[in-house]
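Backbone shape codes:
===
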Amino acid sequence: MALVVQGMKTAVTGTTAEAVGTGLARLGQSPVVLGGDELDLIEVMERGGSLGLIHIGPAEPKAMHAYADQARDLGLEFSADPGDLEGEEAVEFLTGAKFLVTSEDRYHLLQATTGLADDEILERVRVRVTTLDQDGVEIAGHDMDRVRVPFARAREIIDPAGGVEAFTAGLLAGLGWGMSLRRASEVGSQLTALALESVGPQGYSVNPVDFVNRLEQSYGPAAAAEASAYLLPE
């Protein structure tokens, strides 16, 4: 479902990326987006049906807080990427989230500016999903063992821009398909590899057959079989 808003330009942001291995360094302002009072989640559900999980990513801080407040008030589950939010503003935003999705650098910044240890952050969110560049992904949460998902095989690192966003897109797609957190993170990591192999954050395309084959190379036949049920339906 798409919500079309007349008279507003598509959000655009400038980014400078620097490669350090497969690391990401991002500079620039968040995109201009709808304000929190301009997007009503009740209206969205009336148009498109129930919402299983809402992802709130970096944007104008007032809008981010408004989206999170709406989700909490309506009892809707949401995942949170605080982006550049710091201190109490970041804590207020992420509290109550089902997932906290960040890069390792952003997570360290979050800890430094809030003064919260890892276990204190996990008292405020259910699950933390942190990308670790070439070391893969770490998943930690309540009543679960920590999980490390290795980085997917990449053919060649051309441009690191957009890697975190690609991971989040793949993660959310996998969760939407009903996959486990580990399997959804594998899908996200493989999509990250595609982004890193392309110029620009959105310069890649996904061929379903090739994607499933690469999942098998990275994570084995079980991962490929599970993804093919959604990407290659009979």
About this structure: The chain has two domains: 22-151, 153-234. The two ends are 24 Å apart (CA to CA). The mean pLDDT is 85. Residues 22-151 form a domain with the UDP-N-acetylmuramoyl-L-alanine:D-glutamate ligase fold (CATH 3.40.1190.20).
